[in-house]
Amino acid sequence: MDFRRTFRSAAIAYAGLVATLPPDHLDVPALGEWTLRDLLGHTVSSALRQVPDVLGTRSPQVDVETAEGYFAFAREAPAELLAAATAASADDARAGGKLLGDRPSDHVSALIGRATEALSRVNDDDVVTTPVGGMRVRDWIPTRTFELVVHGLDTAAASDLPLDLPVETIAESLTLASRTTLAIGAGIPLLRALTGRSPLPPNFSMI
Hints:
Elements: H1 3-19, E1 29-31, E2 34-35, H2 36-49, H3 51-55, H4 67-76, H5 79-99, H6 104-120, E3 127-130, E4 133-136, H7 137-159, H8 167-183, H9 187-194
Antiparallel strand pairs: 1-2, 3-4
Helix pairs in contact: 1-6, 1-7, 2-5, 2-6, 2-7, 4-7, 4-8, 7-8
């Protein structure tokens, strides 16, 4: 799969969804304690706004070799570090949501333009500085596509609207989820669930 094309297709689908959101629905509950506005703020920040900054900062070495390693990193982080990161993410989501104002689609479109333009200026194997350390562009960008896909689906569910994603974009994110599940040692429960043998454990998640 072409990671550049799947990122663009996920971004375009997400922009189309945001453009159809009724302005008076932005403060409805969406995900956990987050409102729909908070969810938009988190998605925009994690999947779009940070992309030009990360792609513009080179790292001297590769610290995380794979896309699944990015998500598996959280499982290995100390509890206090994870708690601090979670709290910071919540604050960032709320702040980002406020920045979107009453016409979030305008901001989303502008951020997509900046992110895709930044992506066009780097090579697949360039090593950039991500929140978990140095990663190759081709390994990091699929984690941003994953954010767009998963939180796009969260947004669609909260607003009762469809999210039209190309099959290859869904396939990339589903593959990444499966590989991350393997990386954290939970491949067998997932395989048994997918083949109808047994349900997943309560609160099962690969992130």
